[in-house]
Amino acid sequence: MTTPAGPEAYTGPLDDMFGTVEDEIRKVIDKYNAAVNHINDWKYVLGPALIWISDALKTIRDGLDKVVKLVKYAVEHHMPVVSLIVQSFNWQDHVQKDVSAMVSSVEAPADPNLAYWEGAAATEYRNRAKIQRDAVEAIGGQGGKADAISSWLMSIAKLNVEFMTGLVQIVADFLGALVTASLETASVIGIPSAAKDLAGAIGGLVTGGINRLAEIATRLMDTLASVRDAKGLMNDPRLPGGHWPQAVNL
Question: Is the Cβ–Cβ distance between 170 and 202 less than 8 Å?
Answer without folding.
Answer: no
